[in-house]
Amino acid sequence: MPWENNGGGGGRNNGGPWGQAPGGGGGGPRRPGNNTPNLEDILNRGRDQFRGGLPGGRWLLIGGVLVLGAFWLLNSVYTVEEAEVGVEFRLGEPKPDLSTAGLHFHLWPVETVEKVSTAVKQTNIGTAAGSGSRANADDGLMLSGDQNIVDARFAVVWSVINPVEYIINVRDPEAMVRNAAESAMREVVGRRPAQDIFRDDRAGIAIEVQQITQAILDSYGMGVSVNQISIEQAAPPAEVADAFNEVQRAEQDEDRLQEEARSYANTLLGDSRGQAAALREEAAAYANRVVQEATGEAERFNAVYAEYVNAPEVTRKRLFLETMEQVLGSSEKVLVENGAGGSGVVPYLPLPELGSSSRATTSTGQ
């Protein structure tokens, strides 16, 4: 060894480069009772063992190769379940073909595989019990266009349509879907009054949020499709729920009173229209009757005139007699002619009737 001659003197020094054996003695063989092994002896024993070869070394080598082969085969074979697709990557570059359901093989570790579920997924926003570990009780609180606070709870139904983009372009796709849908809902609610999301236009808001969310996810190239936005609940926060309910009841009373007023107005309007129609019918009947009477009188006059043209004297005398008949027919006067026919009639003067007649004449004249 190189340190055999470094201990001074010409003798053999088995104690090492410092000229003393590990046991405290000088060079020379180990003394009895000294259990510290000599470094040279250890090296000699190791060299002898390697010269003889490893015990069972060939079988050990074969077993190691088999274990490594089984481990490589176990990592090279993979299974794709139903409603899943596999995307194989060769040195980080995605292969063009997707792996469908079944058993597949790839060259591990040169090739790796990522499995993506193509089933429909649902992300709940605003509900702590259904939103996962990232849920927050204030996720659904947002400000409406009329400065009211709305607690909206809704669900996003979506699915993967491009697995390669879904894996590569975004680190956390589910969180991205949540953030995009929540941002879209806040934008739409912030431009509308609170009544729209409470009851008036939930369907319109859901469609608009779906379109905005899809546009945001497409801009990031996520490879997902937003199938539906379902607004499960929209209500004011619990702190102001009582005051909001009072406002709702007042609005309902207002609507009820307006309906009653419209009903009363319609009733009066119907009655008025009915009376107007009756008056118009009566006026039309009266006008028709007057016209018919006038037409009849005119025709009668024309007929009399035609007779008068043919026989003026006879017609004149007839008209005189008919007129006198009409005038004297309603009179109470009695005519007594002089002569033999009237000699036996005793004149009678009705004093009470003459008195009442004179008083009536005097009052009429005044």
Automatic annotation (TrEMBL):
Keywords: Coiled coil, Hydrolase, Membrane, Protease, Transmembrane, Transmembrane helix. Residues 355-366 have a biased composition (Polar residues). Residues 240-267 form a coiled coil. GO terms for molecular function: peptidase activity. One of its GO terms (cellular component) is membrane. GO terms for biological process: proteolysis. Residues 75-248 form the Band domain. This is Protein HflK. It comes from Devosia sediminis. The gene is hflK.
